[in-house]
């Protein structure tokens, strides 16, 4: 049962233009990879053999994005039999690693591991390892000419376990830490969060996962299996589960953005796909599978990123989405040895600017029927960080404006036919570290 979406995605990356819609599948699985001497996870059989089987099944079913939790001391066996082209490097076994890894048919940028600020050993040894969450910008679809790229910010998590008072406090803090990170680092972006929350809606103490729903995220299980109603009565799942309406602690959340729409089409517990040859389970958790449909924004799209993942995240997408037919009236850049600041002032007076105050300012005022349609960015190294050193903008009238210092490592961008550059996404501090462009129809 190979995933059709991964084959489609591969063909699109090879072509000149990115697709504007498609499908992809995800799987969340706690792989029960704690050392056998610490925890057998109520799973029969040898853990190394089971890990080899899990990797084989990952390869067999070809889910496009797989998040693994508790991927500790048997990690190498899973990777030995898996064949996904993109895989995170392990952070180590117990007690060094977080047990969080991703295997995918799709590439990503800006991968990070973040440790929980709060943990509890009240019920189990949750503080033994640096549990937490991971972050990446998944490339759902991209073009070889950099015209457009579709991203989603993807999070993998493993929250504190147990139901003692201290566990509840720690777990609430964990989920809230993810929510705060999303608010800061995923502003303006589509988001997918999935993993082992160790939470259930039906527990009165687990309120943080409900707050995720209240803040714009959706749960495919609630939408597709529970009729949109968050349960208040606990219905525990067997393992393997014989139905999809019972509740587990392994959950999926998602949201769309002005740049990309996500729609959950199907939810299931994929338990029957992950069994030993004798019918026994491979993990003490039911794997969760959700299939998604995606589409690029109808009024806003973006380019590929250039530069390095440093500085503070910014996005003009939310502001631009609130403006009818945005059009730059003035382009203003600041630079010297490197690019310090980028900005546009729209025809309605909205100013979008990012970076520091250094360098020399240059500006270009556009005519009424003149559009910003092309750009070039150059990157280089400064103090061990990759930063944007140079920008050059070209309009539909052939006029140009540039700032900073060109390097040999450059990339050109062109707005899609009938579209224009209207704003930015990226990361910056005193200088511009990373940059992508937001497009809108002319």
UniProtKB/TrEMBL annotation:
GO terms for molecular function: endonuclease activity; phosphatase activity; sphingomyelin phosphodiesterase activity. CDD domains: Jacalin_EEP. Residues 311-441 form the Jacalin-type lectin domain. This is Endonuclease/exonuclease/phosphatase. Residues 1-18 form the signal peptide. Pfam families: Exo_endo_phos2, Jacalin. It comes from Podospora didyma. One of its GO terms (cellular component) is cytoplasm. Keywords: Endonuclease, Hydrolase, Nuclease, Signal.
């Amino acid at each position: 049962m190979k995933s059709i979406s991964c084959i489609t995605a591969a063909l699109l990356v090879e072509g000149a233009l990115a697709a504007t819609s498609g499908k992809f599948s995800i799987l969340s699985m706690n792989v029960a990879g704690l050392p056998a001497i610490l925890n057998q996870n109520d799973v029969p059989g040898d853990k190394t053999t089971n890990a080899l089987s899990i990797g084989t099944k990952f390869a067999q079913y070809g889910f496009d994005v797989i998040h693994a939790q508790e991927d500790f001391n048997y990690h190498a066996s899973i990777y030995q039999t898996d064949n996904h082209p993109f895989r995170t490097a392990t952070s180590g076994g117990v007690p060094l690693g977080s047990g969080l890894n991703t295997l995918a048919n799709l590439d990503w940028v800006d991968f990070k591991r973040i440790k929980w600020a709060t943990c509890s050993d009240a019920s189990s040894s949750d503080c033994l390892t640096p549990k937490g969450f991971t972050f990446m910008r998944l490339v759902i679809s991209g073009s070889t000419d950099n015209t457009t790229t579709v991203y989603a910010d993807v999070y993998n998590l493993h929250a504190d376990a147990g139901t003692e008072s201290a566990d509840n406090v720690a777990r609430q803090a964990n989920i809230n830490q993810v929510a705060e990170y999303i608010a800061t680092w995923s502003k303006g972006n589509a988001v997918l969060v999935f993993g082992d929350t160790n939470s259930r809606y039906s527990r009165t103490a687990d309120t943080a996962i409900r707050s995720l729903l209240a803040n714009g995220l959706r749960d495919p299980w609630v939408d597709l299996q529970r009729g949109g109603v968050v349960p208040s009565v606990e219905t525990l799942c067997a393992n393997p589960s014989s139905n999809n309406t019972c509740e587990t602690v392994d959950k999926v959340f998602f949201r769309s953005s002005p740049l990309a729409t996500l729609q959950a089409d199907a939810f299931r517990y994929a338990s029957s796909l992950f069994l030993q040859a004798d019918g026994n389970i491979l993990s003490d958790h039911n794997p969760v599978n959700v299939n998604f449909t995606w589409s690029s924004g109808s009024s806003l799209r973006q380019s590929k990123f250039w530069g390095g993942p440093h500085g503070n995240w910014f996005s003009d997408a939310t502001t631009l989405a609130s403006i009818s037919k945005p059009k730059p009236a003035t382009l203003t850049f600041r630079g010297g040895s490197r690019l310090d600041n980028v900005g546009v002032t729209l025809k309605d007076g909205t100013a979008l600017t990012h970076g520091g105050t250094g360098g020399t300012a240059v500006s270009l005022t556009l005519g009424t029927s003149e559009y910003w349609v092309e750009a070039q960015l150059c990157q280089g190294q400064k103090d061990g960080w990759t930063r944007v050193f140079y920008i050059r903008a070209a309009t539909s009238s052939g006029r140009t404006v540039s700032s900073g210092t060109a390097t040999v490592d450059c990339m050109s961008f062109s707005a899609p036919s009938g579209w224009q550059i209207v704003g930015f996404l990226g990361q910056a501090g005193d200088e511009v570290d990373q940059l992508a462009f937001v497009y809108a129809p002319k």
